[in-house]
Amino acid sequence: MMRLRGLGAGFVVGALVLAACANAGSENSSGSTSAEPHRGGVATLGVHYEPPSMDPAICGGSSGFSHCQPVFDTLLRYDYTSQKFLPQLAQSFETADGKTWTLKLREGVTFSDGTPLNADAVVFNWDRIRDPKTLSPALRAVDGMSWKKVDDLTVEVTLEQVNYQLPGKLALQLGFIGSPTAIRNAGAQAGSRPVGAGPFTLTTWTRGTEAVYAANPHYWQKGRPYLDGLVVKDINDDNQRLNAFMAGDLSVNVSPRTQESRTAKDAGYEVTGPVPMIAGTGLGMNLRDPLLQDDDLRMALLHALDAAQIVHAVYPGDPAPDALLTPDDPNRDDKAGGRYPTFDLQAAQERFDAYLKRAGKSSETLTLTAFTSPLLAQAAQVIQAQLGEIKGLTVKLDSVDTPTLVSRLTAGNFQLVQGSSNLAVSDGIYDTYHTNGTLNSYGYSNPKVDEALDVTRTSNDPKVVAAAYGRAAGEISQDPPLRYYRYYSAHVWQQHSVHDLTLTVFGSGVGVYWDNAWLDK
Amino acid sequence: MTKTRNPAAAEASPVATSGGSDVATEEVPRRQAGSWASTLGTRRVRRWLASLGRLVLLLFLVTAAAFLLLQLTPGSPVDSILPPDATPAQIASAREQFGLNDPVAVQYVHWLGNVVTGDLGRSYRTRQDVLGMIAEAAPVSLEIATLALLTALLLSVPVAVWAAYRPGGLVDRVSTFVNSATLATPAFVLGILLVFAFGVKLGWLPILGWVPFTRNPTAHVEHLVLPVLTLALGECALFTRLLKGDMMATLQQDHVLSARARGLPTWRILTKHALRQSSFSLVTVMGVVVGRLIGGTVLVESIFSLPGMGTLLIGAISSRDYIVIQAIVLLSALLYLVLNTLVDLSYPLLDPRVRKERTW
Amino acid sequence: MVTSLDGVPGGGPVATMAPTAVAVSPRRRGRKWPIGALLGATWLVVVILAALFAQALPLPRPEALSNSFAAMPSWDHLLGTDALGRDVLSRIVFGARVSMAVAVGATSLSLIIGVTVGMLSGFFRGATDSGLSVFVNFMLSFPPLIFLIAVVTALQPGILTLVVALALLGIPNFARVARANTIALADREFVTAARALGASPVRILVKELLPNVMLPVLSLALVVMATLVVAEGTLSFLGLGIPPPAPSWGGMLAAGREALRTEPQLVLVPAFFFFFTVLAFNTLGDWARSRVGRSSSI
User: Fold this and answer.
1) Could you tell me the CA-to-CA distances from A402 to A142, B106, B314, B315, C253 in Å, in that order?
2) Searching chain A, which residue's CA lies closest to the CA of residue C155?
3) Residue A217 covered by a domain
4) Do A351 and A362 fall into the same domain?
5) Which of B56, B201, B288 to probe by mutation at the C interface, max C CB count within 10 Å?
6) Residue contact C142–B66, C-beta within 8 A
């Protein structure tokens, strides 16, 4: 079972209780505190990333959760403790056979412009995502999906193939529903003038600085939100965000730094985390490159990588990854084995020498394409030094800026790469590691993994699915195309005056649902 | 050989001159102090038109070069906007929407046509109107640059004047030392050190972010102090040195000596009689300095997380948002050229005795 | 010479040429030994020698990682270690190579091209002058930062790319000074005499004018080098400098910034070297100009 630190357990439990009660319309306060919520106040959230647009078709797929959720809310909500998808804006999303799903919307929910959030609105939004002209990052998510309106509050979704993991998409990529009237009227400005059914409305958005929201008087949950307003500040530098939080400029900070989070906790702040995610940065290998198809060469590289040294140097306080799934992940199956190859220079040298002998070479050169931003560049230098410990191997470091790296990755134009994968939900493993996965940049193909991942989608039994994920992850870890040297971790810091945050995870980190949040006077 | 009072003038402006003729044979228009109208001869008008022509030509060259240069950078806006799992239909649509399928020359002409009608396009990344984006970001940078300039002047003029008046004195020696020190400290190091000292250790000032004046004037000013100071200190050194040099020369001149002989108070001599003429070097460099300050805001905005033009530019380059970069190139070049023209035109206002040496 | 990136070489000479040509020092000290310039020269000599003979010095390899991160100075590591456990002194010395190579290399290239352009313009005037003036003005109007970022991104970061990009930016500086001085000198008696004797333009340019033009140009070059040391640092700070793992002073500053709160020495040590090197160049440049300056005024 997952260990939750601090007040996180209380929050999540409270959120579950509330979600269960939501249908009944009752106003139970969350189970973690017996205090009566105060009304009023403006909370400030500090995040490191801002989406390019608040167009609901763009936001979900581009990690825009923090900016868009206040305005749009999401159809479903992911609870990472139970790994379940719970109804949020929608009333329910159910299936009998995994192929045909029924989405039921709540009665009487309107967007902040007064128009109704009904089946037409959902269909309109999803149609927009499907339209290539919208350039929605969520387009892939609707592959093999079709939908139709059944009645005013019901949408029926049909899949070509059974996929019990579908709800994940309604918590994120397809989860933001905007007012069709507003979108039509806004035209090209749809990204700057979002109109949704969430607890807040957007007042102003100073790009690159902050977005300011005000409470939505038409919000369907009467009496909510407790807050008068919300400010989401985009502060890219982790240190600066930390400073801002310590100075009291932020109510809530989302931080990827373990060391600083510990310090904050010791200083008496409320810190939740690390929030479990399936995400990390690592050494990626292009399996389409003939050199890297050689098992001995790959194993040599994997044995030469010392993740412990990398995190010690660059991310002090973080644990060193030893498998795809973190030790906290409920799907991780330690009994079945399946870990990354251990750090063993001798074994690395032996495998490398075997490779040279077979290939008839006396030395080898590989190129590592890496990022230039400070922490990533440091990690890349350590990797280069570590791999260079293998005698006869030269690793050249090719540092390029992010767009260049991304286009090389997409085009398959690399040998070794500093890769990352941020998966909000376990289903992301399918996209990255399945032979048919749409995000499989490394050309990885393993029949055992494919079989296991297929089960995760076709089975309705949570135990079977968990075991399948464990199997797949274990198998991947033994010979991974992307070997994490660092698990991405996210911590949520909050001032003592902040209460009742509901947390979730999405691709880039932790998200906050503000419906029930309140501030001390 | 026409003598100029200040050879700095010989180096100044790129635009405000006409082409062709030799210095010795050129007729310099006659000027009397304060008689503007008499100078509006056809020769002058022709010179202005020639300047305008050069300005337009340069803008063409600069924007065309920027276009070409951007084509050479690896990566494209499509990669930055669409995820790795984008469908071919999306990629094709994106390329069409951004005009990337046309040959480069056609794209340039198309862009030029839009610009002439005042349409700078829409950002590939955010779909915002580019002119709007710039209108949002420019005031931030301009405010910082202007305040930095004023602060630098405010700090340097009194110091320079006094140092020129009392060379070798305490003010002179201390200011020279501080100047050298500041000149040797790069702007970004200065910025980091100021953040460290005032923000982190002392905690007196906020170290990042921007608060609009309308939201909270006090906070607005607080957030401005460190960035403005970082920029201003760099230029202070330059101003002090220039002004001091000029002042020292001016103070030797006849009209000043005669004013002293007449028993005028010191401060009046310094400010009224000497300062105006000594500001020549200062004004000469003003065009360049302002240009540099505006460029310098890029660094400062990066250090202090300010939403100005610099941040806009860095962001646009990071996502290969060509259309935004083009607009910034155009406006930067325009600003630089206009400023230099203005500086040129201000010479006769400062010292009618100066003949404008024909320069580049 | 101001140290911000925009107008890195574009702003210098206008400002720096002026004061010495006009300032009349009221006190003439009979000082024969300019202490500042001497100290500056000494420092530069030490830095350049260290850079040249870096390989021969008994220092650990600059890329060698160790497990003592951000350590204070010790006998093993005279200046301590950086965030990845690499020896700071070694990185400073090897970084000096990069800084000096960029500074000297880019300045030299700038100088050669700029002086050629300037002298041809100043000597022949007319169409040559107009044409080259458009070229020079074009270079001045193009926003330098965008140019640098675009060139570095297009050509991939590296010493050669930096040298070329910075050299291009510096050409207008030298061109203007060369041109102004050529114009000033072209009417002098020795040139007229050479013409009368039937010397070809090339001969006049090279033998008569060039030596005289070079004096102010060289004093400018010293100041420009200071600016380029800073420019390399700034570019590294923005992530466009010499790519890792090659050490560079700017890169060390940029990396050290992460740990400013907890280990400020990671910033202060490279900043110290920066400071004194730029100061040395500036002081030498000032001294050179004060020696040469008067003769360059008209």
Assistant:
1) 27, 28, 12, 11, 21
2) A400
3) yes
4) yes
5) B288
6) yes
- Answer yes or no: is A3 within a domain: no
3-state secondary structure of A8: helix
CATH, residue A98: 3.40.190.10
Q: Which residue has the tokens 């505006």?
A: B294
In a domain, A32, yes or no: no
> What is the torsional sign of CA A270, A274, A276, A281?
positive
Mean pLDDT by 10 residues, chain A (521 residues): 35 37 32 70 92 90 88 92 88 93 94 94 96 92 93 95 90 93 92 94 90 94 93 85 84 89 89 85 95 94 94 88 88 83 94 94 93 87 93 91 86 92 83 91 94 93 91 93 92 92 85 92 78
**Residue found by looking up tokens 């990827």 in the block:** A256
User: Rounded to 5 degrees, what are φ and ψ at A505?
Assistant: -120, 145
Residue among C7, C24, C278 whose CB faces B288 most closely: C7
- C151: nearest CA partner in chain B: B69
On whether residue A497 sits in a domain, the answer given is yes
pLDDT truncated to tens, each residue of chain B (360 aa)?
A: 333 333 333 333 333 333 333 333 334 444 444 455 555 567 778 877 887 888 899 999 999 999 998 888 888 888 888 888 889 999 999 999 988 888 889 999 999 999 999 899 999 998 899 999 999 898 988 899 889 999 998 988 888 888 887 877 888 888 888 887 787 787 888 887 887 787 767 777 776 777 777 777 888 888 888 889 888 888 888 888 888 877 877 777 777 778 778 887 777 777 776 777 777 777 767 766 776 776 778 888 888 888 888 889 888 988 889 999 999 999 988 888 888 777 777 766 665 555 455 455
A418 and A498 assigned to the same domain: no
Domain region containing A409: 279-487
Provide φ and ψ at B248, rounded to 5°: -60, -40
Task: Indicate if A494 and A423 belong to the same structural domain.
Answer: no
Q: Check whether residue A371 and residue A447 sit in a common domain.
A: yes
Query: So what's the ipTM on this one?
Result: 0.82
Mutate to test the interface with A, among B141, B192, B305 (most CBs of A within 10 A): B305
Q: CA A252, A44, A318 angle in degrees (round to 5)?
A: 25
Closest Cα in chain B, distance from residue C147 (Å): 8
Residue with tokens 């699915």: A465
For residue A147, what are the β-bridge partners?
A: A157
Question: Residues, chain A, total?
Answer: 521
- Closest C-alpha to A80, from A521, A520, A509: A509
Q: Minimal CA–CA distance to A252: which of A2, A514, A516, A71?
A: A514
- Residue A373 belongs to a domain with what CATH number? 3.10.105.10
Amino acid at B345: L
**Could you tell me if A496 and A474 lie in one domain?**
no
Please state, as a whole number, how many other Cβ atoms lie within 10 Å of the Cβ of residue B177: 10
Query: Does C128 reach chain B within 8 Å, measured CB to CB?
Result: no
Give the bridge partners for A45, in sequence order: A232, A252
> Domains in chain A: how many in total?
2
3-state percent breakdown (helix, strand, coil) of chain B, nearest 5 = 70, 0, 30
Instruction: In whole angstroms, give the CA distance from residue B306 to residue B137.
Output: 9
Beta-strand (E) ranges in A48-168?
76-79, 84-87, 90-95, 100-105, 145-151, 154-159
Q: Give CA–CA dist A226/B308, Å, rounded.
A: 34
Nearest chain C residue (CA) to A386: C65
What pTM, to 2 d.p., does this model score? 0.82
Question: Could you tell me if A168 and A103 lie in one domain?
Answer: yes
What residues of C are in contact with residue A314 (Cβ under 8 Å)?
A: 83-84
Q: Is A165 exposed, middle or buried (0-12, 13-18, 19+ CB in 10 A)?
A: buried
Shared-domain flag, residues A271 and A298:
no
Residue C222 has pLDDT above 90, yes or no: no
Quick one: A388 and A505 in the same domain? no
Q: Are A502 and A516 a contacting pair, CB within 8 Å?
A: yes
